[in-house]
Amino acid sequence: MFFSAELISAQRAERVGIINELVPEAHLGARVYALGKTIATRSPQAIRASKEAMHVLSEVVAINPSTYERLQGLRRDVYFGRDYHEGIQAFLEKRAARF
Question: pTM for this structure?
Answer without folding.
Answer: 0.50
